[in-house]
User: Fold this.
Amino acid sequence: MPESSRRSWEYATVPLLVHATKQILDTWGEDGWELVQVVPGPNNPEQLVAYLKREKSA
Assistant:
C-alpha cells in the first residue's frame, strides 16, 4: 500500500460508569471516536473499560 494512502489511528481507553455508559460513549462518539471493544477492568471485573479508535487527522 502506498505511504500516502495508509490510514493512521489513535486509540483511547475509557473507564465506563455503569449508570452513565450511554452518555460517556455518545460523548466520545461525537468527537469521532469509534467503539472497538468493552472489557472488564484489570483490577475489578465489575468496572468496565472501553477501547476506542479514530483516524488521525492529516
In short: The mean pLDDT is 91. The beta strands are 9-16, 34-40, 48-55.
